[in-house]
Amino acid sequence: MSTNSSSTHLMTEGNILKEILLFSVPLILGNLLQQFYNTFDSIIVGKFVGANALAAVGSSGSLIFLIISFAQGAAVGAGVIVSQYLGGQNRNGVQKAVHTSIAIALFLGVVMSILGVLVSRPLLLWMDTPKEVLPESIVYLKIYFAGTIFTVLYNMVSGILNAVGNSKRSLIYLAIASITNIVLDIVLVALLRMGIAGAAIATVFSQFISCVFSMHFLLKTNESYQVSLKKIRFHKMVCIRIIKVGLPAGIQNTVIAISNVLVQASVNGFGATSMAGFGAYLKVDGFNILPVMSISMAVTTFTGQNFGAGKLDRVKKGMNKTLWIGIIYTIVTGALILLFADPIMRLFTDDPGVVAYGKQAMHYFCPFYWLLSILHGLAGTIRGTGKSIPPMAVLLISLCLFRIFWIQLILPHYTTIDGIFVLYPISWAVGVVLMILYTIFGHWLYPVNHKNKFHQE
Q1: CB 72 within 8 A of CB 250
Q2: Mean pLDDT of all residues in the chain?
Q3: For the residues 233-249, what does the mean pLDDT come to?
Q4: How far apart are CA 27 and CA 371, in angstroms?
Q5: Where are the transmembrane segments (predicted)?
Q6: How confident is the model at residue 406 (pLDDT cuts 50, 70, 90)?
Q7: Residue 128 — φ and ψ, nearest 5°?
Q8: Residue-level pLDDT at 317
Q9: Per-residue pLDDT tens for 174-233?
Q10: Rounded to an integer, what distance in angstroms lies between the CA atom of residue 357 and that of residue 261?
């Protein structure tokens, strides 16, 4: 694999729409690939192991996000700082940011792996996981969390590659991981009949593969973001900058993950069939959510580079074009999912109850994904300037506090699962209103002394 100079790409010049699209498309394809092999896990488990195993895989998603969400926030912080130094053409700053980021990932990866294995069973019990699903859920989670260090390290490396404009590289490694995961799913679950454990092993090994390939690239490249093992350490001032951006994002992710766990616990109260249906649909949901997050990451990098270069007008134009990209994408995909709702759900299982719950969720989610694209598009732009606290506050209020309020005070008045499904679009709408208000009235885009902060001194 080549490691020439073309592996760094600045978005501070040229057509804005073209730059954002060229950068975001590999991100979108990469996340879709990742979601595809996660979905393939559920399809194989549902077809060859059964509805309870499908419920176990589906209900694990919120807990997995809960454990690794803080590390994902750190990756966001690292990406913003790397992109800002790169935009300011500060090679020394890029080097310090990259090596500090890897050190943070290694530390968090070890902690997350140990913590995840230890808390799997207690968390599942706290969520009122049905007894018929509990044993398989525990097995899946413990195996998955044992390999969390690979996920955390890959996410950090991917954040670095995206920050320097090399999103195509992440796509290559995710493609390799996807193929590995699919092959192992077929071998371990369908052929060797290893059940839920086989699905978890396939996922962990595929993450290990993507981690190895991405780290190998950083070690071999000749670019400013090259990694040297002996230089991996915490650079105090750079670490503080990463934490200032990443900590709010990490807290935001963690608290939102807690609210998602509460939502999942509410779903669990409706039984294993509802768990399986909702869990299966969440795999489909990822084909909308992950591209939205990819577009948000793209505009964060675009903003970081242009903000670091002092090109504030490009930041505003990039935000507007990003919003249109997200809105158009989510309207089209939401309509397609609704159109093919029944055959999509029957990919996972032939159980009519499970299929019915999944289709019910679709009718509440699909018409409103455009709200989520606006919410994350604005948040991604503002975060790229280094202002991560305001987006954190908005997302915590709408996707966490409001949902907890709803679960505690509104949901008891519902006798069906509709009370949970309708919560999602309403909470997205609350977030959009708050984020638009901050974008208009907040002082998030203002001139700074870029020469001293991001450029070579």
Answers
A1: yes
A2: 85
A3: 85
A4: 20
A5: 20-37, 63-86, 98-119, 139-164, 171-192, 198-219, 240-267, 287-310, 322-341, 361-380, 392-411, 423-446
A6: very high
A7: 60, 40
A8: 92
A9: 888 888 988 998 999 888 988 889 989 998 999 899 899 999 999 999 888 899 999 999
A10: 19
The answer to whether the CB of 91 falls within 8 A of the CB of 220 is no
Distance CA 70, CA 109 (A): 10
**Measured between alpha carbons, how far is 432 from 375 in angstroms, rounded to an integer?**
5
219 is written with which tokens? 């070690």
User: Per residue in 316-357, pLDDT tens?
Assistant: 999 999 999 999 999 999 999 999 999 999 988 888 998 999
User: Which residue in the block uniquely carries the two structure tokens 């590289």?
Assistant: 169
What are the pLDDT digits (tens) for 379-397? 989 988 888 889 889 988 9
The residue behind tokens 């093919």 is 340
Report the half-sphere exposure of 54 (CA within 13 A, side-chain side). Answer: 35
User: What secondary structure, in 3-state letters, does the chain show?
Assistant: CCCCHHHCCCCCCCCHHHHHHHHHHHHHHHHHHHHHHHHHHHHHHHHHCCHHHHHHHHHHHHHHHHHHHHHHHHHHHHHHHHHHHHHCCCHHHHHHHHHHHHHHHHHHHHHHHHHHHHHHHHHHHHCCCCCCCHHHHHHHHHHHHHCHHHHHHHHHHHHHHHHCCCHHHHHHHHHHHHHHHHHHHHHHHHHCCCHHHHHHHHHHHHHHHHHHHHHHHHHHCCCCCCCCHHHCCCCHHHHHHHHHHHHHHHHHHHHHHHHHHHHHHHHHCCCHHHHHHHHHHHHHHHHHHHHHHHHHHHHHHHHHHHHHCCCHHHHHHHHHHHHHHHHHHHHHHHHHHHHCHHHHHHCCCCCHHHHHHHHHHHHHHHHHHHHHHHHHHHHHHHHHCCCCHHHHHHHHHHHHHHHHHHHHHHHHHCCCCHHHHCHHHHHHHHHHHHHHHHHHHCCCCCCCCHHHHCCCC
pLDDT digits (tens, 9 = 90+) for 244-289: 877 777 777 777 777 777 787 888 888 888 888 888 888 888 788 8
Q: Would the CA dihedral through 65, 351, 45, 123 be positive or negative?
A: positive
How far, in Å, are 102, 164, 333, 354 from residue 341 at the CA level?
Answer: 42, 39, 12, 13
Residues 6+ apart with CB under 8 A from 329: 291, 292, 295, 373
pTM exceeds 0.90: no
Least Cα distance to 27 among 302, 392, 435, 381 occurs for 302
pLDDT of amino acid 378: 95
Closest CA to 131 of 239, 296, 263, 275: 275
